[in-house]
Structures are given as structure tokens and as C-alpha cells.
Amino acid sequence: MTSSASALASVLAAEGSGGDDGFQAPTVQEFYPEPIAEFDLFGIAFEITRITLILWVATAVMIALMVAAVRKPSIVPGKMQFIGESGYSLIRDGMARDVIGPKGLPFAPFLASLFFFILANNAMSIVPFAQISPMSKFAFPLVLAVIVWIVYNWVGIREQGAARYFKDAAVPPGVPIGALILVTPIELLQVFIIRPFTLAVRLFANMFAGHMLLAVFALGTVYLLNVGNFSIIFAPFSFLMALTMTFFELLVIVLQAYVFTVLTATYLNGAVEPAH
Amino acid sequence: MNILAAESSNPLIPPVGEIIVGTITFAILCFVMIKYVVPRFEQVFVARREAIEGGIERAEAMQAEAKAALEQYRAQLAEARGEAAQIRDAARAEGQQILEELRAQAQEESARIVARGEEQLAAQRQQIVHELRGQIGTLAVDLAGRVVGESLADDARRSGTVDRFLAELDGMAASGAGRGATVAESNR
Q1: Can you tell me the distance from the alpha carbon of B8 to that of A38, in angstroms, rounded to the nearest whole number?
Q2: B13 touches chain A (CB under 8 A)
Q3: Which of A43, A60, A152, B67 lies 20 to 30 angstroms, CA to CA, from B83?
Q4: Domain that residue B133 falls in
């Protein structure tokens, strides 16, 4: 795909740069396509790449589907409404109500937004012609994780009061005083730094690695077909692997969207109810 | 371009522009979901729950009503049955009583009729016997007159008259005795 930029720091790329004949594995450059448009606004550089377009298309399609689902709401749902309702109920009942608890329903819209946003963008990794998820760009999962971080801390302060919330976070009730030397730094680090970081990295890394795997096997198939010697017989295996990985990716797409939302619900649960 | 690419090649250091784009995009989706989509889903859920619960409540009310009506009918039926049985018993008793009364009355009446008939018969018999006695006397006197009046006529005629009279007397006595006997018998 982007063989021209293969000279960048990567072992595989360095190996590939030895000659034009060898297999050029996809590099991190996969995630930095040529910008379609570039502009500066208030000193911030904006790059509109095909990944940005994919982000917009995925989001627009998801919004369109959701709006179509509730365009004519009725007690006996149509097909679209039924699908939309099933998806929303999964978040509303399965997470907002069951994970956060009785106070959870107000968070259902936020959780549903997260879930469907991630799902739509993840799905782009196996949609033909897009075939890369915006979530494999760290910026987007990071944005979501930071929003989640702000929301659960804000909710914690609002529900429990700032003093109580920070005290409980630093000094969990029921911990012996001696253990606090260890527990307090770990807890503080976990609640305020590790949680958002892992949330973002988990999603990003899964989509990043998924794309790399698919790219390796897809490019491998093409390479084996074109190499011009007996290794052409291995091309079907590479293709089969790419196919298998696509199904695996489908699982990852749904699972990661679900995990991200469930973890958000869990953090919100901790914020809504004081620690026991 | 090359410098930019090299700078941002670390996938864990995102460009600021991308962060802003991502934030705005997510915010738009959030806005549509929170302001438009979810409220309508919730509306449908509420409407559906009300429809189902309302239906169940209505059905329950109807069932209760039907049950109450059934109980009432049953009670009424039992009451009516008891009443009917009571009425039947009373009627039977009354009928029995009336029958007894009638029977007694009829017996009395028949006894009275029989007694009166006997009385009447006895009186008639008495009367008839009296009458017969009178008639026999008269006839005897009449015959004696005739016998005396016709003594001067021829013997043959005389003897005929006597014979005739005797025959008449015979017949009369025989019929009178016979009739008297039968009447006495039937009176008994």
C-alpha cells in the first residue's frame, strides 16, 4: 500500500529496503496516510486523511441508523426500531441498570453513545475499501478515555462530595493503616491515571494490532501471488489466514466496544456509590 | 511533510488536531443520541410498559368482576334452591293435609248421603205400605159392591166377575209383595 515510505524506523521496513524484490511488511506508516487536506487553525495543524473521512463516515452512518430506528417510534417496533432498541437495551439494562445500579439509568445515553461510536468506528476495520479503524489512531480512543475520566470523576464529586470522594480514593475504607503506605499511591495512581490510560490503550492496541495482522496476511497473499516462483502455492493459505483473521477481527470489534463501555459503567458505579 | 510524518510516527503520541477532530465527532454523536434518539427509545419503553401493565390491570379487574358476579349468581342460585325446596315441602304438607281433609269430608258426606237415602227409602216403603193397605181396602169394598150389584145377572157372568176380581186381587197382592221386598233389599 504505502511502499514508498518504508524507509522509516522499523526492522521489517529496514529489511524490506534492502531490495525491491523482498516482501515489504506493512509498517506503522500504514496509520499515517497522505493527508487529503491540511490547514492550520489557531496554530494547530489539522490533517484530513482518509482515516478522518472514515471516522466521519462511520459516525454519520451510525447517527443515520439510530435516527432511522426512532423516526417513527411505535409500541410494536419495526425492523429498524427493533434492532436499535435491542442495541440500546443491551446498554441500558445490561450496563446502566445492572452494572451501575439503581442510579445508573441517567448514564444510559452516554454509555450508549460510547458503545455505538466505538462499534461503528471499530467496524470500519473490516468494511471493504475502508479497512482501517479510526480507533487504531491513538487520538480517538484517548479522547473517549479522557471524556470517561472527566465524567466519572465529576460524578463522584457530585454524588459523594469532593472531600469524601478523594478521601475514599486515597484511603479505601477497611484497609489497615500500615498497608496504606502501599495502598494509597496505588489507588490514587489507579483511579486518576491508570484507568483512563488502560482504557484508551486497550482499545487502540486491539484495533492497531488487528489492522496490522489483516494487512500482513492480505499483503502477503498479494506478494505470494506475484512473486513468480513456486511460492504461489502458499498464497491460498495466506488468504485463508486473512479470512480467519477477519472473522476474529469481527469478534474483537464487538468485544472491545463492549469492554470499553462495561469498564466505563464499572467506574461510574464506583463514583455513584461510596466505597464500602 | 516528511518531518511531520517522522514526528508523529510514534503511534502513542497523537497530534492535537486529531484529538480535536475526534472530540467534535464524538460530541456530535453524543448530542444526537442524548437529545433525540434515547428520549424516543425511552418514550417507547414507557408506552409499551403502560400498554402491557394497563392490559394486565384491565384483565385483572375484569376477572375479579366476573368472579364476583359468579359468586353472586351462585349464592342466589343456592338461595333459590333452598327456597324452592322449602316451598315444595310446604306444598307437599299442605297437599297432604288437604287430601286428608277432603277424604274425611267425602267420607262424612257419603255417610250422610247413605243415611239420608236409607231414611228416604224407609219412609217411601212406609208410605207405599200405607197406600197399598188403603187401596186393598178400597178394592175390597169396590169388589164387594160389584159382587152385590151384579148378583142378579146371569150366573156365568157372575162367576166371571168373581174370577176376574180374584185374579186381579192375586196379581195386586203378588206385585205389591214383590215390590215391597225388592225396595227393602235395595235400601240395605
Answers
A1: 15
A2: yes
A3: B67
A4: 2-187
| Within a domain: A255 | yes
The total number of structural domains that make up chain B: 1
Q: Is B3 on the interface with A (CB under 8 A)?
A: no
pLDDT digits (tens, 9 = 90+) for A187-220: 888 888 898 999 999 999 998 888 888 888 888 8
Across the range B93-121, mean pLDDT stands at 93
Assigned domain for A13 exists: no
Q: Is B37 on the interface with A (CB under 8 A)?
A: yes
DSSP designation for A171: S
Q: Most distant CA pair in chain B: distance in Å?
A: 205
Nearest to A156 by CA among A180, A114, A192: A192
Counting every residue written for chain B, the total comes to: 188
What are the residue ranges of helices labelled H in chain A?
Answer: 11-16, 50-69, 79-91, 108-123, 139-160, 162-170, 180-189, 195-226, 235-272
Is the Cβ–Cβ distance between A225 and A186 less than 8 Å? no
With contact defined as beta carbons under 8 Å apart, do A104 and A272 qualify?
yes
